[in-house]
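Subject: sequence -> C-alpha cells, single chain

Hey, anyone have a minute? Need the predicted structure for the following. Not urgent.
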Amino acid sequence: MRFFLFLLSLFALGCSSNNDSYTEINVQNIRISYFKKYIKDDEAKMTAIILKNELKLNDDKRIYYFGIVGGVNGFTVCQYMRTIAKDRDDNENFYKKIARKLSSEVFYGSPVDYTLCDQDGKKVITFGFSPQLPELPIEVFTRNSVGGGGLVCQFKNITNKHLILIVNVSNKTLNTKKSFIVTVSPNSFVEHGWAEGWNYVSGDRIELTNADYETKVVYAK
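Reply:
Had a minute. Here:
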C-alpha cells in the first residue's frame, strides 16, 4: 500500500499524463519505477547503479524504492524512505552532488532534481538542480584561544580578491547555532572566535557560503 502511494506521488510531481505508462526494473536490491515515455531502460539501469554506489545501499536483504519522472524541462529522481534522516547536516550538498552526477552521466546534461518521499508516499523535500560551481578558495585552520578558552578559527583567502562569507556554525551536542558575515582580504586571513561571538570547540560544524562558489563544510578540530 505504501509503495502504491509512492507511485501516486510521482504523478503529483506533474510529469505524466493518464496516457503515460510506467514500468519497473530491479537492479540487485534497487527497484526503480519510471515512465517509458521519457525514460529509457538503460537510463533507468544506469541510475540504479549510481544510486546504489553513491548511497551505499549494500543491504541486499532490503529492497530500496526509487522513481524517475521527466520531461522537456529535466528529470526528478524520487527516493522512497521509511523515515527521512533528520541528523544529516549536509543533506542538500549530498543529494545535489548525486543529482549532478546523474545529470552528467545519465541524462546528457539535463537538469536533475532530487526528491525525498516519506513512508506515506508524500513529497517531503526537493533539492533543486544547480550547476557545479568552483571550489571555495578558503582554507580553514584552528588554534587554541589565548584568552577565552576553546578554539579560534582562521579563514585564509588564497585568491587575489576580497571574499565575503556567510559562516554558519553549529554544535549538535549543545543544540546551538549562529550565523556570521566575514570578509577576508586577498591573500590574507581573519580570525574568528569568542571575541567575535562564538567559542569554537572540537566537532563544531562550520559551513562557509559564497554565491560564486560551492558551499564548503568543515569541522573544528
